[in-house]
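Researcher: Before we compare anything, I want clean individual predictions. No alignment, no superposition, just each chain on its own. First chain goes here; please echo the sequence and then give the structure tokens.
Model: Echoing the first chain and its structure:
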Amino acid sequence: MATGFDLAERGFCPVRWRAGQRPETFSPEASLGLVDLLLHAHRIEDVEISPPPALSGFLRILAVLTGRITGLDRMDSFEDWEQAREDLLHAGRFDETAIRRYFDEFSGRFELFHTATAHPFLQDARLLEQCRNPQGDQVSSGVNKLVPNRAAGQAFVWHSHTVDADPSPVPAAEAVWSLLTWLYYGPPGRCTARQVGKTRAGDTKSGPLRGTVSYHPVGKSLFHTLVLGLPYVPWHEHDAAPWEEEPRDPLSVPPPAQGLARKLTGRFRHAVLLTPSESGDAVVDARITWAWREEHAPAEDPYVMHRVPTNGGAPIPESASATRAVWRDLDALLGRTEQHRRPEVLAHLDELTVDEGVFTAIRALGFDQDRSQAKERQYFSGITPPVLEAWQARDPRRWAQLREAREAAEQTAWQLQEALSGLWQQLSKTTNGKARDRGVPWLHKAMTTYWQSAERCFWEAVHAEEASAPVRNRMIEVALRTYDDTTADLMRQPKQVKAVEEHRRGLWRGWRSEAKANGEDDG
């Protein structure tokens, strides 16, 4: 019988303490279990979890726990919920008695391994018997399959230095993050076969967050982050998290996403079971297969931004793009555009009247993936500087500066992209509109450089009391520098120099002279 790894008590989550707030009983490098994480949330600045998809999933788990221990998940009225949230923020910490009562009630349900409990956390112990090959032998997926950045099966070995013939165990604490990544962002398609009754299948659908980006409020402490990041979801009598109920029949219809827990933790399409080492401190194997054969009912995730179709159809989750920084969607996130429906959790901060100092930023956590295929590109994270000041004040000047700066950056970026693409087409006599970056070899690097510099200009423009120069001019200057650096090696032959200069001229479109900027006649 392997030693258990109870996530309620065992340290698995690294944290960053607020200055001078770390209790003497914890070392600076100590990781915390769920009980200590909530008990000391007001002393913790933030959790330090990677990769970003794992943090995205973990924040949803913590949101359910926050709702449970505070009672904010059991309110029918938004007005009552809003008042209770403000009272909790003024209290400044979670109630210790409520925390211990909840974890006592579900003792053993946060155990990571099926060798120590019949209900391993977010897993299905039935897979030990149900994952079998056509001959009826028990099979597994392998521990390399569990870890997203490892090579497994027939994947190219240079993806990582791992092979299925000699897999390296994964520390238990790290396996938690791989488990969350699979449950929320797992791919569709082939998986380890699972047989339930007479039904045997080896395919599954996409995880509920696949290919999306999540937006989370960030507070001055983990306590504030969790309270501000708790969306209002009306109470439902049948609401339950996976660790709070018995496993359901995987051939039945999934329960509707009614209530906080079902909405945030009840739409997984993958079923996972981890196999521990003899000591219980590592994972040596895993089974990853389908969780349901029937579809889930549609549900909007409260942390995801949705695009509103022009034809009046249902809102569509905005796709994640590793090349798109969070500030480019800031006006949409703050509810200033009609083309997007901002994440519900951010809308719930509109009328917040508590001390503004509790809120500091918006964090973006995404995974750039193909939603319909098992293609992973890149996961990413980003965070804004403080934005609530302008948000709450509804300062028209701040809003105008924000919108003008974002639009200037986008318009100039389009001009830079057109200039570089046109230059490549002229010099190479070829283009490929279907290929990524249009087949232009220097486009990705150039646009990455541009957006990094444009972001600095954006925030300077948003926070400036008085603009020293039109923001469009500053963006154009960034684009010109990027263009010149990108094309420096081409400035040798007269034909190339002429082409570079011809396409460079297009970057000046939109430049405002000093006279025009001051409203004077430029003539």
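Researcher: Okay. Second chain, same rules.
Model: Second chain and its structure:
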Amino acid sequence: MPAAVPLIAVVAAGAVSAAVGGGVIGAIVGAGAAIGVSLIGGAIFPQKRPRNSALGGGSGGSTAQEAQQRTQSFRQPITEHQIVLGRAKVSGPIVFLHSSTDDEGRADGFFHMIVVLAGHRVRAIGEVFLGDKSESDPAFAGLLRVDRHLGDPDQAANANLIAETGGKWTEHHRGRGRAHLALRLKLRPEAFPSGPPNVAAIVEGADTILDPRTGAVGWSDNPALCLAWYLTATFGWKASWEDIDLPSLIAAANICDEIVGRRDGTAERRYTVNGTLSLAEGKIEITRKIVAAMAGVLVVTGGRFFVHAGAPALPAATITSAELRGSVTVQGSRPRRDLFNGVRAVYVDPGKNWQPTDAPPLLAANYVAEDGGEQIYRDLDFPLTTSPSMVQRLMKVELERNRRQRAVTVQLNLSALRLRPWDGVMVALDRLTPFPARVVGWRLAPEGGIDLTLAEEDAAVWDWNPATDERATGDSPTVVLPLPGVIAAPASISVETPQTISFAALSIAWSAVGSAHLAGYEVEFRPLSVALWQGFAGGVSATSATIPAIEPTALRVRAQARSGAVSGWREVLVPLPPGGLTATGVAGGIQISGSVPGGTAFLQVFEADADDLAAAVKLPAEPTALPWTRTGLAAGQARWLWLRAVSPEGNVSALVGPVTATAL
């Protein structure tokens, strides 16, 4: 006998429902007593009550909170693992921290950490993000090492940590069955201005999912298959496969894999599931969220799980007056408080850094007219949905089902034992126009017989025409907030080019950094004969400085924030000098040949009547290429010449020469 095995208790009038429904069409189940809901009950997710749009307010906040938790690494004494389904950006608890001396001899220069991403094996760990930057960002070059562990049941401990943590991490710390990242950061203020950053990664989730259609085990984002995986998981319902009705599961998986068109001319599968679930949520909530992603229900009856994805119902039977044993109660419309004519929803958008995003709101003008012109919205969250077109289909289903308001409660004889919750039926009772319905309430009556609650069903609920039903997502408004831990480098730097052979200082100037958090600038220099940068000044408030220098010198400057963060360096290096110089006498002058280094703005030429650099003076001409001819000499005049390159920023190279020749 298909008696309902209830899962959740909710006190209400009517029969006991036996379906755990999705966020858009779900019913809440009774729990071993004659209590439950009479019609489609509360949504899978905590929902706001339908309300007048004039009162304001937006979509619910639970998806936003979950998305923030999903992408934030954290450290606390006790926490729960999480499940990753499909593809999602994921972070997790930090289970190990350690610092060690880096390769430059700096104490605590290396920072080691392990972030657990999932409490099970995953198919792949893709791109890793530190804060909002990818691991491939040039800012992390030479400063970051990432080791990925997929959570194999027999995986070995991280060899790098064993070697570098002085026995803190040993070969026994294997993290078996736990997908995790092992990172080593070389802490530099220009790359990590606020210290160790938040760590997250793009993860392709559970890959031990059985598809009974093929017998294959692997990765899947099919909600029906993911639900069956959770039902049988050791951290789930711990059911056996014999407890799951395979025909209904296969039918649900096929519905999820149906191809549906999108407005842009592409297509996607009808339902997918992509996101994370914390084991702290509990089995009921996790089950609800997976079911909601396919607009379906989970029915538990006769000791078995029946999985249903959202789709038109095929009538399993026709209910006639001949089966009645008692009264018939007809509800022609829902109470006003349960009606709505618009839907607003939040989903997770991979294109917006996997953050919660408002879907285009759905408002049906015909239903608004039916409600006397009052706009009434229902707000929904879809934390496991990442497609804007898919979330709009779920929104439409929610609205259309709500507007199918007719329901019938019937007292039938034992012939109704052939039906189970969520079956489709045709209601053909006397004095009622026949209409299709679903069984949303099922109860074995104490006096014998079956009490059913039947809700109106319409195949049009599931219709989808992307040309008219899908709305453009548009761009969400962006708010720019100050980031005191991040400051930009000066956009440009320049040097006042020396005009003489010798000099005692170099004047440098740089563009101002427009930041309310600017504390000043730090300036360093490196003479050509010195290998290391030397500090000149920190906390400089001006945008120029004069630095003692008697030889070609590289210069650099960076911004400092009041928080202690620093920008990257803006540098002006010593340019390479001209090469391969030769001098040849020509009529009325001397031609100088050689090579000019790439990136040279121009050359300076110094000339003397003898091989005496101290007596040389700069010629007015500043050639940009070689060969170049020194003109204006009389026949028989000899000259000695030295050259140096000038960079676009005005810095000078070392002098090369002399070369000498006699004018013809």
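Researcher: What stands out in the second chain?
Model: The longest strand covers residues 435-444. Additionally, Residues 264 and 536 are 58 Å apart (CA to CA).
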